[in-house]
Specification:
This protein is α/β, with parallel strands linked by helices. About 30% of the residues lie in helices and about 20% in strands. The chain contains 13 helices and 14 strands. It has helices at about 20-30, 90-95, 125-135, 150-155, 160-170, 190-195, 210-215, 225, 230-235, 265-270, 305-310, 325-335, 345-350; strands at about 5-10, 35, 40, 50, 75, 80-85, 140-145, 180-185, 200-205, 240-245, 250, 260, 275-280, 315-320. The strands form three sheets. It has an eight-stranded parallel barrel, surrounded by six helices. Strands 5-6 form a two-stranded antiparallel ribbon. The protein has a two-stranded antiparallel ribbon with strand order 11-12. β8 (about 180-185), α6 and β9 form a beta-alpha-beta unit. α11 packs across α12 (about 325-335). The model is unreliable at about 340-360 (pLDDT under 50).
């Protein structure tokens, strides 16, 4: 039987709680995740705080706070113009006066009522949440952290690598065996981290575009290039795995339905790289067309069917907005695995067990 894929509570359980908040992380832990996942950006005074982006206009109540009206500015982040409020223009003390709100209200109206109930967390506080939740457990809760826009932050004098390593050292978790993973959409910062930490490093990969450090350096390579064997081999020299957009593992056809598996998982595994896909969500809006139920974008479809397809494709982990669904799908998949697959099936399929068809 193949090892159980890990379940990563993507920003906690944002399908049921405000993302990146204490209740969201605690619910993910309660529902059985292996890791909780914070995205980190920096404050003006050099503290890592947990937000999806450094522009916090859509995820906090800052726009309704008259004392911060003059902080609204226009900037170019990774080559894209943005107008809003940015963490690097606030001190931690100011950030702590803000309250979180739902980022996707049209798809997750159940979370609208939770607005203004939760503070913005620091990365240090997320480490504490995981540490406290691990007491009495056979297996500790891990923290799977993403540094956001590292090239941009380094350019304004806030090096996310330095801030992250300082936090990890202070908490005495920058050592082999600590259940912490560091991920990034860029490459240069991960390469710079490799000699500074023995922790697991994961190279994120999107289906379009390019790592911004490539763009800034005039490097013509894209994420599409990174899926090829020569580039994966380069990644294997500094990282322990890849985190591809899920469509890079199972393609979708012109109708938006799940189509054939790509060779990415097998290529990565041959180089010793694990594969953790993002992001699994239950709403019709995010599901393949053949797994949707009805026409309501916010309604939930056959999310379990999608998990099973990716587990069969051999992925080693999933980022999920709905931990309980991910854990249920993993349990179903493990129960259905054959401990002695036939030679033909084993030879034809990538690691993760023989492919099976699942009816809705």
């Amino acid at each position: 039987m193949s090892p159980a894929p890990i379940v990563i509570g993507h920003r906690g359980v944002p399908g049921s709680r405000l993302e990146h908040t204490r209740p969201s992380y605690l619910l993910a832990i309660e529902q059985g995740c292996d890791y909780i996942e914070p995205d980190v950006v920096a404050t003006k005074d050099g503290v890592l705080v947990v937000r999806h982006e450094n522009d916090i206009g859509n995820t906090t109540d800052v726009a309704a706070r008259p004392e911060f009206a003059d902080r609204k500015v226009s900037k170019v982040i990774d080559g894209v113009p943005h107008t809003g409020w940015f963490t690097e223009d606030f001190t931690l003390a100011e950030i702590k006066t803000l309250r979180a709100r739902e980022r996707l209200p049209q798809l997750r109206p159940q979370n609208i009522r939770l607005a203004r109930t939760e503070q913005i967390l620091t990365f240090d506080e997320v480490l504490t949440i995981a540490e406290q939740a691990s007491v009495g457990r056979d297996e500790p809760i891990g923290v799977y952290v993403e540094t956001k826009h590292p090239t941009y932050f380094a350019g304004i004098g806030l090096d996310l690598n330095d801030l992250l390593i300082a936090d990890l050292e202070r908490r005495r978790v920058n050592h082999a065996g600590a259940k912490i993973v560091i991920q990034s959409m860029e490459t240069a910062n991960l390469q710079a981290l490799r000699p500074r930490t023995p922790l697991t490093l994961i190279q994120l990969m999107d289906r379009q575009g390019a790592p911004y450090d490539f763009v800034a350096a005039g490097d013509p390579r894209t994420y599409r290039n990174l899926r090829k064997v020569p580039e994966l081999a380069k990644i294997a020299a500094y990282a322990d795995g890849i985190g591809p957009n899920k469509s890079q593992v199972i393609k979708r056809d012109m109708m938006g339905r799940l189509a054939g598996e790509t060779k990415l998982v097998r290529r990565a595994h041959r180089l010793g790289l694990v594969v953790h896909i993002w992001t699994m969500r239950s709403e019709n809006n995010f599901l393949p067309a053949n797994l949707r139920t009805g026409r309501d974008k916010a309604a939930h479809g056959d999310a379990v069917g999608e998990y099973l397809a990716f587990f069969n494709a051999g992925v080693d982990g999933v980022f999920s907005d709905f931990t309980q669904t991910a854990v249920r799908a993993r349990t179903q998949w493990l129960a259905g695995q054959s401990p002695s697959p036939t030679p033909s099936a084993d030879a034809a399929e990538p690691a993760g067990g023989p492919t099976r068809r699942h009816s809705r």
